[in-house]
Predict the structure.
Amino acid sequence: MPRVENPPWEVFNTYFVQRAAPVIITGSPLFSGRNLTLDDLTRPGPGDIPVSVRSGNYLNIKERRYEEMPLSRYIEEHIRPWEQGAATAADGSALPHYSGNTPLTWEQFEALGLKAPQCFDGQKFDAPRLWFGPKGSATPLHYDSRDNLICQYIGRKHFILFAPSQIPWLYMRDYSPAWSSISDPRKVDLNKFPLFARAKAVEVTLNAGEMLYLPEHWAHFVLNVETSMMVNFWPEMTPAQERKTKLKKDLYQLKLKFAS
Ligand SMILES: O=C(O)CCC(=O)C(=O)O
């Protein structure tokens, strides 16, 4: 995967957005300034932001449990103990609690001291989403039906990616988001999922201060390799895109109905 230093819009658009090619952008002025610390984020203001926390065996979305709590409590109870090596998941599962996919208002986003990127296609962004988790927290294999700009503010995140051409080998179900029956591509039972042997992955680790452009329909499994804070941005869908996505979801559900 190429790393490009703060490209002008024309370069980013021509070589990556128009070709639906993923890229990592380094050196963006978005990240210039003081590095964020856990102490900054537990102060009143940022620390009061309510976040959604996943627990249980959340790599299996049917077994996922959710709880809402202020960011400061999440950091004190679930991030610091894992950093000090003192924690085991309270419910006995091997996975640390993960605060994933919390929508932020723009006021909350600014309270975190963050700057928004420029949208790459002139549209507005939807509400930014906050992903905060300790080492070992992860998101199972899936793809989304829109382009994604992933901004890494603290720590490193590892991505196992599959281009849209690989989808036939990934045992995908549902649509938008499409989840794979294989939740973790590092541990695949090839007797159960033999076609997966054909799938070619691209692996990349995103560092703090870097931004990943992930085009729509690229499947991803995401692992926090250390305490990690990321905010991602999806461009607002145009009404035509919304209609197309709804149609595809309806068609998928219809296919399921006829198959059963
Ligand atoms: O960082 C993560 O754990 C998952 C992020 C993700 O799935 C996304 O941005 O679409």
